[in-house]
Every structure is written in C-alpha cells, then in structure tokens.
Design brief:
disordered C terminus, 1 helix, alpha+beta, Immunoglobulin-like, elongated, single chain
Length: about 190
C-alpha cells in the first residue's frame, strides 16, 4: 500500500496537534499547581449566620502586620459590609496589605467580583469561599454580583476603599500595627 506524501504530512501534523493539546491540558491542570476545591472547606448554616462567630458581625479584622481578614455576607441584593446604597459601610483596608476575603451567602447563589481586579468567587449558601489579594495602590474598587440572583440583581453592588497606609483607620480609630482590631458593622 502506497500513501501519498501529502497524506503522510497531514497525518503527522494531526498527531502533533493531538500530542500538543494533551500536553497543554496536562500542563494547565498539573503543572501550574492549581488545586480543585475539595470537600474540606468550611461550611456554615446560612439560616443562622447572625449567630456565627465571624459572619454574625461581618467586617474587617486585622490579623497581623499588614494582614487583614474581611468577612462578607451576600444577600439579595447587597453585600454586608460593602453595600453603601443599602446604608452599610464600605469595606476599608490599607494599601500595601494582604487581604483575605471570606464570603458566604444567606439566601441564594451570588458572586463576589471586584471590578478592575481578578477577584471573582462564588458566594454559595452554606459554603465559605476565600480569596487572598494584595492591594498595593490606594483607590476605590466596585463590588458586583456577576451571578443572576433575582429581580434586583442589577442593583447588587458595593465598594472597597483602599486607603494610603498612613491614613488608614478602622471606625475612626488609628490602627497600630500588630493590634487586633475589628470593624463591626450593623447587620
């Protein structure tokens, strides 16, 4: 049997593409060190968030030098803290800090997306999503829900204010590095 040289060329090109696709998928799933979400993530009872240690009074907590944790509750149709239009305080953190957001929902599936950054995570009732980010520059960032959550979805927005380090204060009190301080917002 004689195979024409152009058919051989196309056969070799197709095999190279197949091997290339497999190598790309393997590198993307294993080589970059990206781990899938497991079943060991923290869970909460969405019906009893008011009784939860961290989500009962969500807000900003300083946990180390230039390290902060922010607990956020998503609800139809806002974020606590963050939804300024709903009468809640914005999320305020200092520049040049590492901030870990812990987000959950008390009603339906939402998302927590920070405009102009790569922060985008789901807020699922009963589950706690976390994302860590470093804010290097002062400024204001919008928070949006990118998951349709009901008739008022288009109004679900919030605000993060990143203050210069020397101007940062929690609840009007200057923060000294190393002190644990909590921003307690009203629910």
């Amino acid at each position: 049997m004689n195979i024409h040289r152009y058919e051989k060329l196309w056969l070799v090109a197709a095999l190279v593409l197949i091997v290339g696709f497999i190598a790309t998928i393997t590198y993307g799933s294993v080589g970059l060190g990206i781990a899938m979400i497991d079943d060991e993530a923290e869970t909460v009872n969405p019906e009893k968030l008011n009784e939860h240690e961290d989500f009962g009074e969500p807000g900003v907590k300083q946990v180390g030098e230039n390290e902060y944790e922010v607990y956020v509750r998503a609800w139809q149709f806002g974020f606590d803290p963050g939804s300024v239009e709903a009468g809640l305080d914005p999320i305020e953190v200092p520049a040049n800090s590492t901030v870990t957001f812990y987000i959950t929902s008390e009603d339906v599936i939402h998302s927590f997306s920070v405009v102009g950054t790569n922060i985008n995570t789901m807020a699922i009732p009963g589950e706690v999503s976390s994302v860590t980010v470093e804010f290097d520059e002062p400024g204001e960032y919008g928070i949006l829900c990118a998951e349709y959550c009901g008739a008022g979805h288009h109004t679900m927005e919030g605000k993060i204010i990143v203050h210069p380090e020397d101007e940062y204060a929690i609840n009007g009190t200057d923060v000294e590095t190393g002190n644990d301080t909590t921003d307690e917002t009203e629910a």
